[in-house]
Every structure is written in C-alpha cells, then in structure tokens.
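Standup notes
- DV: blocked on the single-chain target, sequence here:
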Amino acid sequence: MTIKTLAAAVALTLAPAIAFAAGCNYGKQEVTMSCAQGTVYDSATKSCVATTT
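- DV (later): unblocked, structure below
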C-alpha cells in the first residue's frame, strides 16, 4: 500500500469519530416555557397552572 492510500484509509476511518467528538446537538435545544400572569409552570403536568396565594 502506498502512503497516500494508507493516509486516505486512516482519514476515512477516523472521520466519524472526529465528527462525533465535535458533538451533535441536533434536537437537543432547550425551550423556555412562559406562562401567563398568575400562573406557573408545573413540570409534573407539563402545563401552566394557576397560583394559589
């Protein structure tokens, strides 16, 4: 095997590992929940509920 072929094989072999190490955040964005005045976000029901004071 020539050096060029060996280098190409190594580069193609390591490409997925390098891409994975860079981090893939597809679909992992955080969404901020905002509720109307007088309500708070309840994580158990995943909805806004009225506050009781």
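- Follow-up: The chain has a mean pLDDT of 81.
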